[in-house]
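Aim 2, interim progress. The first record below pairs a target sequence with its C-alpha cells.
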Amino acid sequence: MITKRWTIALGAIAATGLMLTACAPADDSGGGGGAPGEPVTLTYWDFLDPSQDNPRANALRENIAAFEEANPDINIDLSVVSLGDMISRLPQSAAAGQAPDVFKMFTPQVPQMAAAGAYTPLPEAALEVDDWLRPADTLAGPDGQQVAVPYEYRTCALYYNQEILDEIGETAPTTYDEVVEVASKAAAAGYTGFGTGFSDTDNSAIIATFFDCFMSQVGQDIWNADGEVDYAGEKANEFGDFLAELRDANALGSAVVSDTYSTVTDGLANGTVAMAVLGTERIVTYGETNPNIKWTGLPTASTGDQTGATLGWTMGIGAGSPNVEAAWRFIEFMTGPEAAAGLASGGEVPTRASSYDDPYFSTPEADAVNSIAEYVESNSEPHTYADNWIAVATGLSQAGQALYLNGLSGSEFITTAQDAANN
C-alpha cells in the first residue's frame, strides 16, 4: 500500500490524500497528455520519502523541484511506495489502467514487472541516449523491448566498524575465511560479528543482494538457458558454507531469521554490528552518521575475484500512460547531467558519462561519490535477470532460516534455496 503521499510543485511539498490520482484521458498523439498548452501532472512512485532529512531524500526533493522549475508545464505528483508494495500493486494498477506515469524499480525486478505488464516500452527518444556507463538494453521485457533506464548504479562492498576491529585487534578481512575469523572474535566481544538477515520482508533484499554479488564474484550463473534456477554446485556451496561457518562461530545476529536490510544497516550505524556486505549506496550516509564505519572491496572466495553485480534503481514509464512524452522528459532529466550533482550529493552514482562533466565532480565534496563510481566501474558487472527474481530471493530467505534453526549444511542450504525457487 501507499505509505505516504506528497505533491511536489516548484519545491513546495504538501500532504495530499491517500488515493491515487486518476490518469488523464489518453492522448493519441503520444505527447504530453491533455490539451495543447495545458499543464500535465505526472504520477510518480518512488520508495524515498522526500520529506525526510537525509542525503538521498534531500537530493530527490531538490531535483524534482529543479525539474518543475525548468518545465513549468509539468507537475510531479509523488507517492511514496515501498519496493514490496510496488511489486504487488503495479501489475494490479496496470491491469486497472491506473499505473503511475513513472516509477522506480530495482534492477533484478525489472524483467518480472515487464512480464507482468507494468511498463510502457520506452519511446524512440529514450533509445537514442548512448552515454550510459553500463549497457541498458538488458532492462527489457519478454519481447526484447527496453522498458527502463538506469537511475543510479551500485554494487556490493564490505562495511566494517573500525572501532570494533581496533578493540579486538583485527584489520579489515580480505577473504571470506578471514571474515569468519574476525566475526568470531567480534562475537566473543559481545557484538554481532557479521550482519545479514533471512527475513522475507522487503523481498529478502539483504541476503539476495549479497548472494547476487557472490555469484558474480565466483562466475556462477543463477539461471540456465531455459530460465530455470540452476546454481547449485561447488561455487554456490561456498556461499552456503560461509553462512554455516558464521552460524557455528556464533557470529550471526541472534535475530538473523527476522533481520532485514534496515535492521542490519541500523546495527552498523549504532555500533552493534561489526561487519556486513551491503550496497555502496550507504557509504555517504555512514560517513555522516558514524565515521567509524569504513568500507572496502568484497572479500575474495577460493575462486573468482572482487567483481560483484552491477545493481541499482531504474526508471520506467507505467503501462498505459497517457503522458509518455512528458514522462520521458522527467526521466531524462532525473538520469541526466541536470540532476547529477544532486544525485551524487546523496551518495548515489550517476549513470551517464555526460553527468561527470558537471563542475561538482571536480570539487572535494564529490570525492566520496567519485570513489564509489570508480569502485562500481572496476568491481562490478551487469548481468541479465530472469523474470522470477522474487522466487530466487524468497528461496534464499527460507533456506537461511532453515540453516540457522535446523542446522543445515552449506550445500543443503544451497539445494534447499534452489528447490524453493523452482517450486
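The second target in this work package is listed in the same format:
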Amino acid sequence: MIYCGIDWAENTHDIALVDDTGQLVAKRHITDDATGYKILLDLLIEHGDTEETPIPVAIETSRGLLVAVLRTGKRKVFAINPLAAARYRDRHSVARKKSDPGDALVLANILRTDMHAHRPLPDDSDLVRAIAVLARAQQDSLWNRQQLSNQLRSLLREYYPAALAAFEPWRNGLCRPEARELLRTAPTPVLAAKLTRTQLEAALRRAGRKRCVAAEADRLREAFRADYAHQPPLVEDALGKQMLALLVQLEAACTATDDLTEAVEEAFPQHPDAEVILSFPGLGVQLGARVLAEIGDDKTRFADARGLKAYAGASPITRASGKKSSITRRHIKNDRLNHAGYLWAFASITASPGAKAHYRRRRDEHGDWHAAAQRNLFNRMLGQLYYCLQHHTLFEEQTAFPTELAAAA
C-alpha cells in the first residue's frame, strides 16, 4: 500500500510517497496551480491510485483548492495538526533538522504507522459545506461588527457622551441604522445640539424608521441639548473626523452581517437535517446553521455521542496521575461549536421547562456554578441531538427530560 504526504505552502508544495516498509517511492515539487494539481494526480495514478482503492493523503490543512482537488472521489484526506507533525518529526531525527521534503515524508509515515489514530476529513455533502462557509462568515461578521461598535463607543465616550445617552434605549445601540444616520448627520455634539425637530425626524425617516418618529425626535432633541462637558473646538472637530472614518467601517460590517444573515436563512432550510435541528428548544436558523456547520451531515463521522461531546468540549476530561486526580473542562475542542453550545444552552433554559429544571438541579443539588451547569445541559442536549440526527426524529420534551419534568410537576 502507498501513502502520500504533502507539505503545503502558499506557492509550491512538496509531495512524498512511501510504501508499507517506509521506503520513499517517489517525491515531487509542484506549483499551486492547475498544472501542479495535474502532476500530483498523475503521480498518484502512476503508483496505483484508482477510484476503488485511492491512496490516502496527509496534509497539514483542511481547506483550500488543493484539498478540494484531493477530496474528489472516495480518497481519504487526513488533516494532521502541525503540532502533532512536529512531534512525529522528532521520532526520526534528534538533530531537529527540518526541510519541506522531509516534512512531506514525515506526513506520509504518519499514515503508514498511525493512520488508525487520526481522523479523515468528513464526507460532508456540498450543501452542508456551503452552509458552513456562510454560517462561519456570518459569525465572523458579527464579531467584527461588535468589535467596531466597541471601538466607536470608546471613541464617543471621549468627546460625545450625549450620543451614547441618546442611543442607550435602543437595542443594539450604535449598530442601528438610526444611530449611524444621526452620527453621520451630526458628527460632533455642537452640531447635534443645533439639530431641529424637523431635521431629526428627517434623519430617522432616512434610516428607515416609520413609527413614533415625532416622539423619538423630541427625545433625541432633549438628549442632544443636555448639559455635558466638551473638548476644545479643534480637538472636537478632529475627533469627529475620526469617528466618521470609523463609522464607514461599521457601516460596511453591518451591511455584510445583514447580507450573510439572509444567505444563511436561505440556505439552511434546504438541508434535510434542518427540521430536526430546529425542533430543539433554543435553536433558531442562525444558531442551528452554526451547529450543523460544525457537526456536518456525515453520519459516520462520530462513532457515538461521546465522540461528538468530546469534539464540542461539552464532556469533562479526567487527569489522573499517581494519587492525584482531577476532572476539568476540555480546552482542546471545536471553539465555534462550543460557543454555539453556550448560546444554545442559555436560550434553552427559558425555552424548555425540562432544560430549566435540569439546570436548576445542577445548581441546587450538585452545587455547580452557572457555567458548569450550563455546560452540563449542553452536554445532555448534544447527546439528544446526536440521537435525533442518526434516526431523523424530532425533539420531544417528554422523552428528553422525563425526570426533570416529573420533579418540576
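The mean pLDDT is 90. This observation will shape the mutagenesis plan for the next reporting period.
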